[in-house]
Specification:
The complex is a heterotrimer of chains A (328), B (373) and C (335). Chain A folds into 2 domains: 23-94, no CATH class; 99-326, MetI-like (MetI-like fold), CATH 1.10.3720.10. Chain A is built from 14 helices and 2 strands. Chain A has helices at 2-28, 34-44, 51-60, 67-81, 94-129, 134-148, 151-166, 185-222, 225-233, 237-243, 245-275, 280-289, 293-321, 323-326, and strands at residues 86-87, 92-93. Chain A has a two-stranded antiparallel ribbon with strand order 1-2. In chain A, helix 5 (94-129) runs parallel beside helix 13 and helix 8 packs across helix 11. The radius of gyration of chain A is 24 Å and the shape is globular. The mean pLDDT of chain A is 82. Chain B is an alpha+beta fold. Chain B folds into 2 domains: 32-48 and 160-368, MetI-like fold (Orthogonal Bundle); 51-155, no CATH class. Chain B is built from 13 helices and 5 strands. In chain B, a hairpin with a 6-residue loop joins strand 2 and strand 3. Chain B is elongated and about 85 Å long. Chain C has 335 residues and is an alpha/beta fold. The two termini of chain C are 28 Å apart. The chains are: A mainly alpha (328), B alpha+beta (373), C alpha/beta (335).
């Protein structure tokens, strides 16, 4: 068990390095850099961008150094000081800009996973044990529909309906009054009143997927001989289903986290634009457009690490629930 | 005896039917899947003939028709029913509450809808010049036909959706084509050779699948040089979308290769000294083509949704190129949606096509293995 | 009811309702299982022998259902002496659940897949006790160890903590037998328990089953397609074909004076060492008919060498007693 965990953990480090290289290459790939796009901006507003100023700026941000030096410095800063570099657009350390936002991305994704599980688990079990019942058919159909609606569209429609029929503004995470207020119980309640919108929007498609996974796995498991054995032992049907096939069907369900998490982080990015949520999404898009490389790169690196961490966690959980993996 | 006795002839035809025939029989049992397939064929045909099907030039704009609401089709006039529907013309009026100028129906103007009317000239497929449109109204020049309303520049949304279909639907197919190419080659190599190559390719797939797609796509899309032509951007984005798509395809191919390698009939072919290429092409490929087709059908929605999301965020295709995602950009903020909810209509088309692909793909997946029970 | 009889099955019909039609998996079978004896059930795959066993426990998988017939279970224990008709019970009936695993238990062909892969062997064995004797749950671990020792599992203290995939095939089947015998049932149904095992392990398991039978005085319903195993294990034999019982007899009569043409053909198709070297091995002509489309009359008439036109293809033959305890369902033996 410990060997397995250590193995997985050791795999995480090279993966992180590979992603950091990819990230850096991608961020460097667009022609020009922040300074050149800054110069174009200045020129557009009618100001003169002197050559000397641009050179000075490049020097200050280390953009005049070779790419690999920039990369090593960046990575070194991350490993030693958790310093993700400097955002040129905001003229602030990247860390200051993203920790809050990353936290919101994590909170929203985590809540969505919990919510998705609470929904998908019982529905999946019921659908499988009552295959071809009206309930099963309606949820299979709803599952298809849920998987077919892009989340940002759903967010838009919800916003529109809320506004058009209830006069509600469903965007953001806080009401006007609480936006800059210090944390209090009232602010927390206000947050919950807003938080359900992104959670529901995001969980629609992942719930649909998980219900289908659970149903399919359980249907497979219900046909296995050990179910007949348990039945022949004299167990009640519910006790039997919950103790054996559900337990076995749990494995793919848990490994599902590994692909649900990237999907959620991805979804959070886009619905944050629509719902104006303070997550990493809007900042990432702005930084990409203005070639604010350390900001854009760090966001992508952190999001990718987050989802890979999710894979790691699902591996651990899988080892906990499945002796076949644990004892290998 | 109440035992159902199958007809002798039906039984023989069951045993002699080819694999594809069996698949079709199985598929046609899924009524929803068949309907979806028909719908998809119809959608692609429409996209192919977008110039003819749409009543107007998608770029024909007019300040008089800004955010004109969709026209209702009427079938009854003076209390009697007419098979030929008609619409009321539009006129500008001042909203009594907000005092802003709005476009409202004018019941004094009656425009019957006719087939094959003259309209904006176009060149179909860069070849055939014409000005005939499948349907429209006679007074098209003064009074455009807005079946689904107009956008913020007074352009006909229906026509734009028809042209958008061409980009959005083709990006789905092209993206899957690219994915198939990468997936079959890399998945095939991975499954056939195994060993270290397999491990490396599997690690790459795992890594790619664990990355959040939209942030990755966004990062990649920025790389496309801004001075590229619309066509090149289109191909670039398709390639970026298939960067994730191929992994699913590769998994199917590799999985089938691994499973088939163990099958007796492959062993038999090997023992019969069949050349390797013949074993692959003659025995292995036909036995997973059906799975691949199902997988491809199920992969199209991801492509379409990806393009829609990127363009919606303003980082994918850019106007004047028209795609469903580009059209949805117009609905990005709440204010315009509240003012003109019909701007969300392109989303309805996205959902319909994605659902159709999912249903059809699901039916195909069930039919893919016609010998299973 | 004869006090020596444990189970009496009369005209059992169990059907499977498929989309393609109705499969009459058990089509009017009648048989009896005597207390403390072994009944061998033989037949090709699909002849309904497993479904008959599943019907006794009311665990026929969906879309199967017992359609009609009686399965009488005779319980005589101290003062208690009663007969339960199992077909009157619901599959979910508490009394039915009570019978399963305690009075009648079952072992299966695939010991690997018949155990849950994610629970320890001990957990799955103790469960039987916890289910049926919750008042004795504290003794469960010791009783499990004791039973594992009795079925010849080495080092039971360690193996009780193992997962099924850590045991060998033979060990798994021993554990399976231990689980089935935990509550000393009066009937053990063994559904091809040795088919998945190699020959040496098979011999060991068969020996174990005989030992346990003499220890616990239980009846065994032994289902197999292997006539060799039948010769070794059974006291009485039932031959099934397409959901019907075609011949019933003590084991000696089955091998020495087979009556039904199907059984005769079956015995002809077994290779023997001493007999008739140089002769071709006989195979039964034709194939088992499509179970969705069972021919009228005798189910075997399409393949029968002694087919009587106008009789065999029209009338279902009734059981005819040809000897003491030996009946056959064939028109050749009716008067």
């Amino acid at each position: 068990m410990w060997k397995f965990l250590l193995q997985r953990l050791l795999l995480f480090i090279p993966t992180f390095l590979v992603i950091s290289v990819i990230t850096f290459v991608l961020i460097q790939a667009p022609p020009g850099d922040y300074i050149s796009s800054y110069a174009t901006q200045l020129e557009a507003s009618g100001e003169e961008a002197s050559e000397a100023l641009l050179i000075a700026l490049r020097k200050r941000y280390g953009l005049d150094q070779p790419v690999y030096v920039q990369y090593v410095k960046w990575l070194w800063g991350i490993f030693t000081r958790l310093d993700f570099g400097h955002s040129m657009q905001w003229n602030r350390p990247v860390g200051d800009l993203i920790w809050d936002r990353l936290a919101w991305t994590v909170v929203i994704s985590f809540l969505t996973i919990i919510f998705t599980w609470i929904l998908a688990f019982p529905i999946g079990i019921y659908s499988a044990t009552h295959q071809y019942s009206g309930f099963d058919y309606s949820f299979t159909f709803l599952g298809f529909v849920g998987a077919g609606i892009p989340d940002f569209l759903l967010a838009l429609v919800l916003m529109w309906l809320g506004f058009a029929f209830f006069g509600l503004d469903m965007g953001g995470l806080f009401s006007e009054a609480f936006r800059d207020a210090p944390w209090s119980w009232a602010k927390f309640v206000d947050m919950l009143k807003h938080l359900w919108v992104p959670v529901v929007v995001l969980s629609v498609s992942s719930t649909a997927g998980l219900i289908r996974t659970m149903r399919a796995n359980l249907l497979d498991e219900l046909r296995k001989p050990y179910v007949i054995t348990a039945r022949a032992k004299g167990m009640t049907e519910w006790h039997l289903v919950l103790k054996y096939p559900v337990r076995v069907a749990l494995n793919p369900f848990i490994s599902g986290i590994a692909y649900v998490l990237p999907q959620l982080v991805s979804g959070t990015t886009i619905i944050s634009i629509v719902l104006s949520l303070p997550t990493t999404g809007p900042v990432q898009i702005r930084s990409l457009m203005s070639q604010d490389m350390y900001l854009a790169g760090s966001i992508f690196l952190l999001l990718a690490s987050l989802t890979i961490l999710g894979t790691f966690i699902s591996d651990i959980l899988l080892a906990v629930v499945d002796p076949r993996i644990r004892l290998e | 005896m109440t035992v159902a006795t199958p007809q002798k002839s039906a039984e023989t035809s069951l045993y002699t039917a080819s694999q594809w025939q069996l698949m079709w029989w199985r598929f046609s049992r899924h009524r929803v899947a068949v309907v979806s397939l028909v719908l998809l064929v119809f959608a692609y045909a429409t996209a192919l003939f977008a110039e003819v099907v749409s009543p107007h030039d998608p770029n024909r704009f007019s300040s008089s028709w800004v955010l004109a609401p969709p026209m209702r089709l009427h079938f009854t006039r003076d209390g009697s029913f007419h098979l030929r529907p008609y619409v009321y013309g539009l006129t500008s009026a001042r909203d009594e509450e907000t005092l802003a100028m709005v476009v409202v129906p004018d019941e004094t103007q009656v425009h019957p809808i006719r087939f094959w009317v003259k309209g904006d000239p176009y060149t179909l497929w860069g070849r055939f010049d014409s000005d005939l449109h499948l349907f429209g109204i006679d007074a098209w020049e003064e009074q455009p036909l807005f079946l689904m309303g107009a956008d913020d520049l007074g352009r006909d949304l229906f026509s734009r959706i028809m042209f958008g279909a061409r980009i959005s639907l083709s990006i789905g197919l092209l993206g899957v084509g690219f994915s198939l190419l990468f997936g079959v080659v890399l998945g095939g190599i991975s499954g056939y050779y195994g060993g270290l190559v397999d491990v490396i390719i599997q690690r790459i797939i795992e890594l790619l699948r664990s990355l959040p797609t939209i942030p990755l796509w966004l990062t990649l899309v920025v790389i496309l040089p801004p001075h590229w032509s619309a066509l090149r951007i289109y191909f670039g984005i398709t390639l970026i979308l298939s960067l994730i798509g191929w992994t699913g395809m590769a998994r199917v191919v590799r999985g089938r290769f691994l499973a088939l390698r163990e099958e007796d009939f492959i062993m038999a072919a090997r023992l019969a000294n069949a050349p390797q290429m013949r074993i692959i092409m003659r025995h292995m490929v036909p036995s997973f083509t059906s799975h691949l087709i199902a997988q491809m059908t199920l992969a199209v929605p991801g492509m379409i949704l990806g393009e829609t999301a990127l363009s919606f965020l303003g980082l994918g295709l850019q106007p004047p190129v028209v795609s469903w995602g580009v059209l949805l950009q117009g609905a990005q903020n709440l204010r315009s949606v509240v003012l003109a909810p019909w701007l969300l209509l392109p989303g309805l088309f996205v959902v319909a096509v994605v659902l159709a692909f999912n249903f059809a793909g699901d039916g195909l997946r069930d039919a893919a293995d016609p010998y299973a029970i | 009811m004869d006090p020596g009889i444990l189970i009496d099955i009369q005209h059992l019909h169990t059907n499977f309702y498929l989309r393609e039609g109705v499969v009459k998996a058990v089509n009017g079978a009648s048989l009896t299982i005597a207390k403390g004896r072994t009944l061998g059930v033989v037949g090709e795959s699909g002849c309904g022998k497993s479904v008959t066993a599943q019907s006794i426990l009311q665990i026929v998988p969906r879309p199967g259902r017992i359609e009609s017939g009686d399965i009488l279970l005779h319980i005589a224990e101290g003062d208690l002496d009663e007969t339960i008709n199992i077909t009157d019970l619901n599959p979910g009936d508490p009394l039915m659940r009570d019978i399963r695993g305690s009075r009648i238990s079952m072992i299966f062909q695939e010991p690997m897949t018949s155990f849950s892969p994610v629970h320890t062997v001990g957990n799955q064995l103790e469960e039987t006790i916890k289910l049926h004797q919750p008042e004795h749950r504290d003794e469960a671990p010791t009783r499990v160890l004791d039973m594992l020792r009795r079925v010849g599992i080495a080092n039971p203290e360690r193996n009780v903590e193992s997962y099924p995939h850590q045991l060998s095939g033979g060990m798994r089947q021993r554990a399976m037998i231990a689980m089935a015998l935990m509550l000393e049932p009066s009937l053990l149904i063994a559904d091809e328990p040795t088919t998945a095992l190699d020959v040496t392990t098979e011999a060991q398991i068969l020996a174990l089953m005989r030992d346990m039978q003499s220890e616990l005085h239980m009846a065994i319903m032994f289902i197999t397609h292997d006539l060799g195993v039948i010769a070794e294990m059974a006291d009485d034999v039932v031959v099934m074909y397409l959901g019907r019982v075609v011949e019933k007899a003590p084991v000696r009569a089955i091998f020495h004076s087979p009556k039904h043409p199907y059984l005769q053909a079956l015995l002809e198709s077994i290779p023997r060492i001493q007999k008739r070297t140089g002769a071709r091995l006989q195979a039964i002509e034709g194939i088992v008919p499509n179970p969705l489309d069972v021919p009228p009359g005798c189910p075997f008439h399409l393949r029968c060498p002694d087919f009587i036109p106008g009789v065999c293809d029209e009338v279902v033959p009734a059981d005819t007693t040809v000897d003491e305890g030996h009946t056959v369902a064939c028109h050749l033996y009716t008067d």
